[in-house]
Amino acid sequence: QGYYTRRGGVGESGDFITSPEISQVFGELIGIWYVSEWMAMGKPNTFQLVELGPGRGTLTEDILRVFKQLASVLSKCDVSVHLVEVSPKLSKIQAEMLTGGKVQPNPEDKSAYMKGISKTGIPIFWYRDIQDVPPGYSFYLAHEFFDALPIHKFQRTEKGWREVLVDIDPEVPEQLRFVLSPSRTPATQNFIQPEETRDHVEVCPEAGVIVQRLASRIEKDGGAALVADYGHDGTKTDTFRGFRNHKLHDVLSAPGTADLTADVDFSYLRKMAQGKTATLGPIKQRQFLKNMGIDLRLQVLLQNSGDTATREQLLHSYDMLMNPEKMGDCFNFFALLPHHRLVHPDKKDKPGSKSPLPPVAGFNELLLK
Ligand code: SAH
Fold first, then answer.
1. Which of 6, 7, 10 to mutate to test the pocket of ligand 1 (most atoms within 8 A of CB)?
2. Sorted alphabetically, which keywords does the UniProt record give (predicted)?
């Protein structure tokens, strides 16, 4: 039914709400992360910000505001924005949010289907697939993107691995049900890791393919990727669920009308990047945001806000993002970085010349000088 292409319910009036929709601070700190990595990597004179699944465009909007505020730092850098979005409905909302609606369809260029200029003067392009984004030094962002991609489900049985499939219930017409494949399937043979110890596993091969692409691009052209999503490090089993109007919804009823989601298995993403890039995390959202300085940012916003309602809103959204019972613990941050960003390449000729590499923001404790 194409949930995202037809309904695409991100936001308060939709089916689920995401961190950038809750607080501007979230996107601002992610914007700082990119500026910090750009500086650590020697301030290259150009970079692309590539976002996968930008939703309503709020996260990019907040990041671009940071880039504008830090214009003196970024002044000599040529920045462009590249959005990978399949939903015509959401791409319209993004265009309105980021450019005030000043976009053009782009039929002469087969890769980007739309282009425009952000309110802050940065060129923005829209694509349907990461492979259409031109090569070049890029910072990638995927927030609540991988959890939206389809998964395979597997169950260990006495006879070996079986795939969980969807079937029509013979007793109740129009109703779907889960069944186990009677024998092995191509997916059971290809997608389960030989060392797997769990009895029930969810695998998202599309996420694996996209991470391999990101890792290859970073290895070849440089940059970094930041992935944030709810997920686990290869420990959880049955996480597939649906949301409609902000309530849990049976995944098999009224297909196409609810957001379907499964926790991201970061151990699988790490495996897919292996060899090409280094990885950091997953680290819990509350730890990452704390390391990025969310407490300081909150203090500044509280000091600058005159009215009680705004202050209450700021404290409420901080609690939503940071409280371990809310989004603080179940959301994780994970990064792909070139190997040389974490480990000095061997300089055999000048062994004494190694200066320490700057720590990667967010994944290390914030030290105030
Ligand atoms: N990052 C946003 C939205 C997350 S919702 C936020 O945090 O608010 C998931 C997003 O991924 C939506 O924009 C959806 O349209 C997009 N999406 C889903 N499947 C996709 C696919 N296969 N390719 C590209 N975008 C996809």
1. 10
2. Methyltransferase, Mitochondrion, Transferase, Transit peptide
- In this predicted structure, what is the pLDDT of residue 298? 96
**pTM for the complete prediction?**
0.95
User: Which atom number of ligand 1 is nearest to the Cα of residue 5?
Assistant: 15
Q: Is the pLDDT of residue 90 over 90?
A: yes
Distance CA 175, CA 196 (A): 33
Are residues 180 and 162 in contact, defined by beta-carbon separation less than 8 angstroms? yes
337-359 pLDDT tens trace: 999 999 887 655 555 566 788 99
Cβ of 9 closer than 6 Å to ligand 1, yes or no, is no
Length of the chain in terms of residues written: 369
* Ligand 1 touching residue 8 (CB < 6 A): yes
Q: How far is CA 113 from CA 56, 83, 120, 349, in A?
A: 17, 10, 21, 49
Contacts of 174 (CB under 8 A, 6+ apart): none
What are the structural domains, with CATH classification, of the chain?
3-150+204-341 (3.40.50.12710), 152-202 (no CATH)
pLDDT in tens, 186-202: 999 999 999 999 999 99
Peptide bond into 186 cis (omega under 30): no
pLDDT at residue 347 in the model: 57
Residue from 87, 141, 147 whose mutation best tests the ligand 1 pocket (most atoms within 8 A of CB): 87
149 C-alpha vs ligand 1 centroid, how far in Å? 9
4 lines ligand 1 (CB under 6 A): yes
